[in-house]
Design goal:
- GO terms for molecular function: heme binding; lactoperoxidase activity; metal ion binding.
- Belongs to the peroxidase family. Ascorbate peroxidase subfamily. Belongs to the peroxidase family. Classical plant (class III) peroxidase subfamily.
- This protein is mainly α and 303 residues long.
- The protein has a two-stranded antiparallel sheet.
- Helix 2 packs across helix 4.
- The chain is globular.
- It starts with 13 loop residues before the first helix and ends in a 20-residue tail after the last helix.
- The chain binds protoporphyrin IX containing FE and calcium ion (CA) (2 copies).
- The site of one calcium ion has 7 residues, from loops.
Length: 303
């Protein structure tokens, strides 16, 4: 069972050790923020929150991180956890006592707070997974062209409600996307209608400017056009103006079943923050491993 004081006797200064390591990394690059937050999400959805996403492929095993859906995970997210783990292991009492999965959960809390988001208690006591297979990723991660039914059923399969899903989608208040994730919305939406009509026309032409046809596939643009480096509720205000980048973002406002929640998060940042914390805590409980089916890795990237 997870608890907020799991390491109280095992590694009493754990939270401050992780905090210092994450702050040092943050001073080197802001990418640590969206990179770590997305890494936590992609970890929890495949095999549960067990750091399976961090495993490197070997000669006879293609690991999760090499699945096409994970190739755009930022290297700085992985590096944040590796640096925090090294800082934890530098303390003799803590060495090899704290799971990579818990370090990822704590680092995620730190980056959210560093970007101006809520600070929340993190439940701890996860063990690290024993497998990481690229094939396990198939069909487990949401796609940017999903509609509300697809989003709801995927999140529901992990015990997350529609409200949780909408609150977690608020993570797109930070970070970057490559152009190919939404190019269908600005160039070939449907026959005779190149641009998605739910997209704000001004925003659509801005996107066409930043992502011309045949754009360099390495180009990435801000997902939140207003406050890309602040964890805030601007994401929901953007949706109200037709400035959701993905179909899966904009549908939250377009579909009348989810619109009231978007409006409520857009108009009250405290309501959004509270729902985000609740949803992150629930996400952090998904598929948690114990000593029976997990272990504590000495190297987060090796089984
Ligand atoms: C609701 C369904 C979701 C879909 C369809 C989705 C899809 C995507 C896609 C396509 C990207 C851009 C990747 C790229 O091109 O580099 C992205 C980025 C991102 N996503 Fe999501 N996502 C979803 C939910 C979430 C959730 C729940 C979180 C975290 C709680 C999250 C956190 C992020 C972050 C932080 C980025 C930016 C990454 C970076 O800048 O390195 N996403 N997402
Ligand atoms: Ca996992
Ligand atoms: Ca923002």
């Amino acid at each position: 069972q997870l608890s907020t004081n799991h390491y109280a006797n095992i590694c009493p200064n754990l939270e401050s050790i992780v905090r210092t390591a994450v702050r040092n990394k943050f001073q080197q690059t802001f990418v640590t923020v969206p990179g770590t937050l997305r890494l936590f999400f992609h970890d929890c959805l495949v095999q549960g929150c067990d750091a399976s996403v961090m495993i490197q492929s070997t000669g006879n095993n293609q690991a999760e991180k090499d699945h096409p859906d994970n190739l755009s995970l930022a290297g700085d997210g992985f590096d944040t956890v590796i640096k925090a783990k090294a800082a934890v292991d530098a303390v003799p009492q803590c060495r090899n006592k704290v799971s990579c999965a818990d370090i990822l959960a704590l680092a995620t809390r730190e980056v959210v707070s560093l970007a101006g988001g809520p600070f929340y208690q993190v439940e701890l006591g996860r063990f690290d997974g024993l497998v990481s297979r690229a094939s396990d990723v198939n069909g487990r991660l949401p796609q940017p062209n999903f509609d509300l039914n697809q989003l709801n059923s995927l999140f529901a399969s992990h015990g997350l409600t529609q409200t949780d899903m909408i609150a977690l989608s608020g993570a797109h208040t930070l970070g970057f996307s490559h152009c190919n994730r939404f190019s269908n919305r600005i160039y070939n939406f449907s026959p005779g209608r190149p641009v998605d009509p739910t997209l704000n026309p001004g925003y659509a032409s801005q996107l066409q400017g930043m992502c011309p046809r045949n754009v360099n596939p390495l180009i990435a643009i801000n997902m939140d056009p207003t406050t890309p480096r602040t964890f805030d509720n601007a994401y929901y205000q953007n949706l109200q103006q037709g400035k959701g980048l993905f179909t899966s973002d904009q549908i939250l406002f377009t579909d009348p079943r989810s619109r009231p929640t978007v409006n409520s998060f857009a108009s009250n940042k405290n309501v959004f923050n509270a729902n985000f914390v609740t949803a992150m805590t629930k996400l952090g409980r998904v598929g948690v491993k114990t000593a029976r089916n997990g272990k504590i890795r000495s190297d987060c990237s090796v089984l």
